[in-house]
Design brief:
Length: about 150
Amino acid sequence: MERTLVLIKPDAVKRQLTSKILSRFEDKGLKIVGLKLMQLSKEKAMEHYAEHKKKPFFDNLVSFITSGPIVAIVLEGKDAVTVVRTMMGTTNPRDAAPGTIRGDFAMDLGRNVIHGSDSVYSAEREIKIFFEEDEVLDYERVIDKDIYENLE
């Protein structure tokens, strides 16, 4: 099974959208294997957004993600990265389809409520930024056989 990182950003936490967003992932069948509410430090934010360091919007990214609490989540499931990215919708919420998280809950690129890893490689790197190894759990769910066909 694949794992991915999701961040519910400060705008969504302040708007009390956390449970609505989490329930979408659980309803889809993704398994929560890591979850924490946290205030992100500037240093961790800069590490997370390191690939954007030379871009003009870097300072705004860091400033926003550290402006309030976030919820960091590790989700697990078949093709979790792609599934989560599809559920989130396009980065610019005004272009995101209705029914996606951004399409339903956001209006502005700078306040787009959620982050999700863009590849398996990014997910592995990002999970290590937000979670210690013992904070990401392995466990079985009885319902997995009802979610996945031919579960190995």
